[in-house]
Design goal:
With about 375 residues, the protein is an alpha+beta fold. The chain contains 8 helices and 19 strands. Helix 2 packs across helix 7. The radius of gyration is 21 Å and the shape is globular. The mean pLDDT is about 95.
């Protein structure tokens, strides 16, 4: 496939090639989609042991200055001002219509905020921060750092072996640890539904750290293919698919992420882009909602498939879908009219012109196993 723009490479590119990865274009980067063992084995490895993911394509940003928290909070319906030190929170940037510009992680590093944004939105997010709050705090892209994710039930034991202080961390804790002789920023979180860690490491030490982690008997390299099936089973959204600028957090079933302080009657209610729209939707409800879908057939239902009700009326659309190896069958997520969003509602997905029975289901499809102490 000819691309007009040269694809970027992460600091682990040569290691992926050495490990036999099949490289594909993703968000402007050459990324490993799978290794020789294949997606199913990589998925099982992460659910039973530990998997190592290269997520260095993501954007890492440091915001500093006394006004940084209040400034960042002005761009999202999430409480950043009261975020405790060494804690991380899930957040969304919204636009004036209440749509989602990106979803991101924000952590309080004490004297600064550390923000991780999606690869495909990285440049526009940094521009958004500079434009709206660049006069209130320092916005610094950390292009000199890679990001590794260690995920799975054995992740805690592996990290405790290499950095014993991580044993005290629980889900959404963050901190600094020394690995391969350098200071790394670490969070106990991830995108698989499993316990795990995300580790920000200087580019020039990324390969050494990856090799150290892969040398542990519980750890194997995992590509984008299994990353997608793992996050789908965990019921986690993928930006640009399950949510976008035309979708509000309420429609996306992300109401849980909107802090009480920022809601109607809260200490710092509103004041972010699209607040009126989102507050109205919280009060009055929405016409469509993101739901989980269990496919009652062996036929996978993919993104873009139309959903219809019992009478054949268009009821919504699938935004993510595929085979759930742990679930043992095809699963999907999508948007349906709110009247059809109740768990157990029978619908049909139209796949290549044929109706496939699906049922609205609770997410996550696989129980989340974050470590909460």
């Amino acid at each position: 496939m000819e691309t007009t723009q040269a694809l970027a490479r992460t600091p682990l590119y040569n290691l992926h090639v050495e490990l036999g990865a099949r490289m594909v274009p993703f968000a402007g980067y050459e990324m490993p989609v799978q290794y020789p063992t294949g997606v199913l084995k990589e998925h099982a490895q992460t659910r039973t042991q530990a998997g190592l993911f290269d997520v260095s394509h993501m954007g890492q940003v440091r915001l500093s200055g006394p006004d940084a928290a209040a400034a960042l909070e002005s761009l999202m319906p999430v409480d950043i001002v009261d975020l405790p030190a060494n804690m991380q929170r899930y957040a969304v940037f919204t636009n004036e219509q209440g749509g989602i510009l990106d979803d991101l992680m924000v952590s309080n590093g004490g004297d600064h905020l550390f923000v991780v944004v999606n690869a495909a939105c990285k440049q526009q997010d940094i521009a958004h921060l500079r434009k709206h709050i660049g006069n209130r705090c320092t916005v610094e892209e950390l292009a000199d750092r890679a990001l590794l994710a260690l995920q799975g039930p054995a992740a805690g034991a592996v990290m405790a072996r290499l950095a014993p202080e991580t044993a005290k961390m629980v889900f959404m804790n963050t901190g600094k640890v020394t690995l391969v002789g350098v200071e790394c920023f670490i969070s106990r979180s991830g995108y698989t539904g499993e316990d795990g860690f995300e580790i920000s490491v200087p580019n020039d030490k990324a390969e050494e750290l990856a090799r150290l982690l892969l040398a542990q008997p519980e750890v194997a390299p995992i590509g984008l293919g299994a990353r997608d099936s793992l996050r789908l089973e965990a019921g986690l959204c993928l930006y640009g698919h399950d949510m976008d600028t035309g979708t509000t957090p309420i429609e996306a079933s992300l109401g849980w992420a909107l802090s009480k302080t920022r809601r109607e009657g809260g200490a710092r209610a509103g004041g972010y882009p699209g607040a009126e729209v989102i507050m109205r939707q919280l009060a009055e409800g929405v016409g469509r909602k993101r739901v989980g879908l269990l496919v009652k057939d062996r036929m996978p239902v993919r993104e873009g498939a139309e959903l219809v009700d019992a009478q054949g009326n268009v009821a919504g659309k699938v935004t993510s879908g595929g085979f759930g190896p742990t679930v043992g069958g095809p699963i999907a997520m999508g948007y349906v009219e709110t009247s059809l969003a109740a768990v157990g509602t029978a619908l049909q997905a139209i796949v290549r012109g044929k109706p496939v029975p699906v049922e609205v289901a609770k997410t996550p499809f696989t129980p989340q196993r974050y470590y909460r102490g």
